[in-house]
């Protein structure tokens, strides 16, 4: 069972005081601690567990700068066999669609039975790289996976729905599955695993290795472009609406329209 896991190196922002950078399109990253994306951490753990059960290999792949190596080293320490980093200044500004194209350019040439991704990334929340990548690869996919059971040629997946409900799907392999948090309990990295990981090679690839053009990536090759980032103004005023349901609904509509939401 050969598995490819797509991971991302993201900043830990839960308790950080964020500031907009000079471009107005990003955040100041100096002083922030970077780590493997939370959802990808669960995907990695699931891949390693499947490998331990069925055999095979796990390949971790990321699109990012050189500092992404720390995340790939963690993947290797946790049980991944290979690591690939796609790095090029021209990748900057790529949205989920352009990122999926970059990943596709490499993964299409790998042997895989399963591709695992996190459900979304903690920094942009696009939640679209996995499904787009699957469509490019021409393989079945499912999202929000909470449980994966593999049988001969198929995967039975329990996926999370709204309201705490789950549905079970059966998809043919090879397939792509986007993993939700809580599917497992990620293990800690051992000292021995860290030492072994430091000795393993990370395969670095650039634009020239992908077969793509500059027009396929960055803002030019993206569906979405960030025009401006801003910190929402703090408002302390709370207004309680009274009246019948119809009256309250009308007031809510007026407020939304006045603020430009509708």
Describe this entry's structure for a reader:
The protein is of the alpha/beta class. The protein has one domain: Rossmann fold, CATH 3.40.50.620. It is built from seven helices and eleven strands. Strands 9-8-7-10-6-1-4-5-11 form a nine-stranded mixed sheet, with helices on both faces. The chain has a two-stranded antiparallel sheet with strand order 2-3. Strand 4, helix 2 and strand 5 form a beta-alpha-beta unit. The longest helix has 17 residues. It is globular, with a radius of gyration of 21 Å. The model has no long low-confidence stretch (mean pLDDT 93).
Task: Reconstruct the topology from this structure.
Layout: E1 3-6, E2 9-11, E3 34-36, H1 38-54, E4 58-63, H2 69-78, E5 82-86, H3 96-107, E6 114-118, H4 129-137, E7 141-151, E8 154-160, E9 166-172, E10 175-179, H5 191-199, E11 203-205, H6 207-210, H7 245-258
Parallel strand pairs: 1-4, 1-6, 4-5, 5-11, 6-10, 7-10
Antiparallel strand pairs: 2-3, 7-8, 8-9
Helix pairs in contact: 2-5, 3-4
